[in-house]
Structures are given as C-alpha cells and as structure tokens.
Design brief:
about 40% helix; 11 helices; about 260 residues; Rossmann fold; two-stranded antiparallel sheet
C-alpha cells in the first residue's frame, strides 16, 4: 500500500476523484473546485505510477484499490463518501466499490466498462511516448512535433505532454512511470469482476462519441456488477467527457451525489 499524493478542497460530504491512464489530479482541478464551491469536501488523487505519487514495478487494480483504501484511512473518510473515477481510474473505483462497499455511499464511473480491453488502441500513444528523446529534447514544442507523427490529435498530445517536466539539470522527464505502464498495459485493460455485486447507487457517464461503454455493457456487463446503476450519455462528447463537456458532468454528478 502506497501513500498517494492528493489535493483537498472544500468542506461537506466527501467526493474522491481518480484520473485515467497517463493523467494526473490536475486533469480534474477545475471541476473539483466547482464541486467544492457547491458544498463538498473534494479530494483529487494521483494514482500510483502517475503524477507525484510513488513509482513502483507493480500496477494492478487490486493494488490500486488498496492504495485508495490507505488514503481513505489516512483521511478518515466515512461511509458517506462518493468515489468517482475516469477510464483507468473508473476501473480502480469499481474494484474499490466491489472490495469495500461499506466504505462508500455512491460510485461514479466516467466512460469505462468493467469488461476486458485489449488496449491495442493505446499502441500509437505508447510508441510515441517511448520514442521521445528526453535526453536531447530542447522544448515542449519539439516534443509536440515529434509526437505528432504518432498522435495526430492536438488535444490528446496536449493532455499527454502535461506529464513532461524539466528537472533541475534542465533535461526533460516524465511524471508518469512510462516504463512500467508500457510493460503493464495488459493489467490496465484487465476485466473487473466479482462474485458479489455492489448494491448501492452507481452512476455511469458515457461520451456519446466514445466506444468505451457499448450497448452490451449498458444492458448486461454493468448491471451484473452494479444492479442499482444508471448510465447517462453526454451527447457529442468523446472519451475525455469531463474536459469536453464540464458543465454537463458537473451537473450530473452534483445531482447524483445530492439526491
């Protein structure tokens, strides 16, 4: 169990937020602030091998669920807490809810289903990130140009390059543990399963232009593990629903927590 890096704001019923693959807690700062202003104690977290949390050779949903449990204990979070996760963080949140249902009031999962994913859709990103010559890199612009050969979408490149920082010797380095994440990609795609369903209320938010939650997931996969769940689609949003449609995500989550 690791001590995770986190940031806390606001007061009221707790909401813990977990980012996705290659993300950091910064991805959720703006929405976190809004929920805090709306009367909630909001904790945004860096998961292991991401952001400023520790780097380890192991990367699995069982371990990440334990990490989150450690944070719940450290912050003395009660059973009135809502846990929200996006993508990989959504799978961590599902694993945690199934492992420790008594620690949560509600669960929110953003654009991911519990099923197995082969992760082939990440191949270009992984190749692109690993191809960057960090030792000789001169600027972010140079990194962006190099990544563009593999990742044509400017917004995806911008998201990924948030992990790039300058060290004291002026060379660039990654905040995420790229070597381990590359090796552990099958673990990131792993299925979330359980013999016991999570019986409390769960909200799944999907992007209308995203294929991460299919009709089959909606009808069978999600209800099998989360029988008291609802799936809400935000039209015209892709996988990064919260970045593309923050107002809709803010309102959906606020209403769900407070109902």
């Amino acid at each position: 169990m690791l001590q995770l890096h986190y940031r806390e704001m606001g007061q009221g019923t707790p909401l813990v937020i977990l980012h996705g693959l290659f993300g950091t807690l910064d991805n959720w700062q703006t929405l976190a602030r809004r929920w805090a202003e709306a009367g909630h104690r909001v904790i945004v977290v860096d998961l292991r091998n991401h952001g400023r949390s520790p780097h380890t050779p192991e990367h699995s949903y069982e371990l990440m669920s334990q990490d989150v449990l450690g944070l719940f204990d450290q912050l003395q979070l009660g059973p009135d807490t809502t846990l929200l996760g996006h993508s990989m963080g959504g799978k961590v949140a599902m694993r945690f809810a199934l492992d420790h249902p008594d620690r949560l009031a509600k669960l929110v999962v953003v654009d991911i289903a519990p099923r197995l994913s082969d992760m082939n859709h990440q191949d270009d990103i992984i190749t692109g990130l690993n191809s960057l010559p960090l030792a000789t890199l001169q600027s972010r612009q140079e990194a962006d140009t190099a990544l563009a050969q593999y990742i044509p979408q400017p917004d995806v490149r911008q998201f990924l390059l948030k992990n790039l920082y300058r060290r004291e010797d002026n060379t660039f380095a990654w905040r995420q543990n790229l070597e381990v994440l590359t090796a552990q990609m099958p673990a990131v795609g792993a299925e979330i399963s359980s013999t016991q369903p999570f019986l409390k209320h769960a909200l799944f938010i999907r992007g209308g232009r995203s294929n991460y939650i299919s009709t089959e997931d909606k009808l069978y996969g999600i209800p099998a593990l989360f029988p008291n769940s609802q799936v809400e689609t935000i039209v015209d949003a892709g996988h990064w629903v919260h970045a593309e449609k923050p107002d809709e995500v803010f309102a959906l989550v606020k209403a769900f927590i407070e109902q």
